[in-house]
Design goal:
globular, Rossmann fold, 41% helix, six-stranded parallel sheet, FMN reductase (NADPH) activity, EC 1.5.1.38, NAD(P)H-dep_FMN_reductase, alpha/beta
Length: 177
């Protein structure tokens, strides 16, 4: 099983959310962790729309999350919150799916006006699932270079923030095990 489950709530392909999460995935893997990456696009619309808790894909995701040591969850900002399709997926997970796990929230928005979406939308969702949310990272769309997915962040201040949050995430995992 993977040490860390990464969950993308972006319905767009490709997306800045996925580019950011894949970059963070590489940093976590460089720190010695194994990862499993899931996108909401990996799940059938029928399962999500009809709330199929017993779907094989949903059950597999749930098992992977419960076996993981930590979770990274990312979403673009839609109407000052995470995506509705991410919520549809989260609703199908068991109530304590993130229990006792450090969770690194990531959000990408069009401007800094939605900076608090992590605190007012994503962190409460993580808490409901019994996860332990870390500070998290909020990106503005223009800070992510879609043309350079291998090195999508050019701003040195943002690079430092990302590395700092990844280090905090790694330390939180190591403290629990």
């Amino acid at each position: 099983m993977s040490d860390i489950v990464i969950l993308s709530g972006s319905p767009a392909i490709p997306s800045r959310t996925d580019i950011s999460l894949k970059h963070i995935q590489s940093l976590v893997e460089n720190a010695g962790f194994t990862t499993a990456y899931f996108s909401i696009t990996d799940f059938s619309a029928d399962d999500l729309f009809q709330g199929k808790y017993n779907s094989e894909d949903i059950s597999k995701l749930s098992e992977r999350i419960q076996a993981a040591r930590g979770v990274i969850i990312g979403s673009p900002v839609y109407k000052a919150s995470y995506t509705g399709v991410l919520k549809a997926l989260i609703d199908l997970l068991p109530e304590g799916a993130f229990k006792g796990k450090p969770v690194l929230p990531i959000m990408i928005g069009g401007s800094n006006r939605h900076l608090l979406a992590i605190d007012y939308a994503l962190k409460p969702l993580i808490s409901i699932l019994k996860g332990e949310p870390l500070q998290g990272i909020y990106f503005v769309d223009k800070e992510i270079d879609k043309q350079n997915p291998e090195n999508p962040i050019n701003d040195l201040h943002l690079i430092d923030r990302v590395q700092s949050q990844v280090q905090e995430f790694v330390e939180a995992i190591q403290l629990r095990n």
